[in-house]
Sequence to fold (303 residues):
Amino acid sequence: MLLVNKVIISGASGYFGKLATYYLEESGVKVLSAGRAANSDIHFDLDFAVDFASTKISENIDAFIHAAATHEVDCVNYPYKCVSRNVAGTRAALDFCVNNGIKTFIYISTFHVYGTDVGIISEQTPPKPNHDYGLTHLQAEEYVRMYTRKGLINGISVRPSNMFDLPISLDDFNRWSLIPFGFCKSAVNDGEIVLKTTGMQERNFVSVRDIVKVIKMIFNNKLTFDVINIPGVSTYSIRDFANMVKRIMLEEFSKSVEVIVPEGGLQNNVLTYMSNYFKPDDLEFLHIEDHVINFCKELIKND
Fold:
């Protein structure tokens, strides 16, 4: 049984937000959406953050999940908007919570705050972001810490690795730059996966369902830290991931796929993304192979 009944999710119309809403509502939690979409319960435009900060609502809310942010591709293309939306937007979400008496605040950050994908990475690893996406999330985390130190909220920042999960709908899905989706799409549509590098760098993958599982533990006061990593059980090199998609396409769908790899060095960059506070295996986290099978099946069905 969860100790929360009603939450707000910002960015609820995005990839993570839609899925998080689905999984929370499945657990009996009422979710109010905050975003730019016309059907949002509360209007929240990151480009006009100050308006949201001063918004008052009449409902009693147990927790706020802040998932509204500029994603990594747009942070490259629009760096100034990235800084404003991700940092000032988080400040506005915090002020909204203070003004409406919402004490529990969960910020959806990212493993990119660490600035590396090599070696052992835990919560004790010093963050050293090397691009705007990682840096702005780290700066937003500092706002969450500051508001918590002042006693204004009880905040925690979660740092998931690379997310995967079946999108609620493929009609408006646009995150094809992410490996778990782009590789499957290339395999189904083109019969080939073309790597931009030799693909020896490793990536950890975690499902949105399992991120929500950790969030529910936070709701029930089982995790009370200011920041927590959320790793998954699946770690692959990019090359191995492509070959896994190739194997699944042949075994499950009888379709041959070619993996095209540029020439170059084959030094493996080993990654161990972990949390000091829980083990994914103990929580029965999903393996990404199941996602690849189901996602490729959906793509073939919609082809």
Remarks:
- The chain has a mean pLDDT of 96.
- The domain at 6-163+206-230 is CATH 3.40.50.720 (Rossmann fold).
- The first strand starts at residue 6 and ends at 10.
- The longest helix spans residues 79-99.
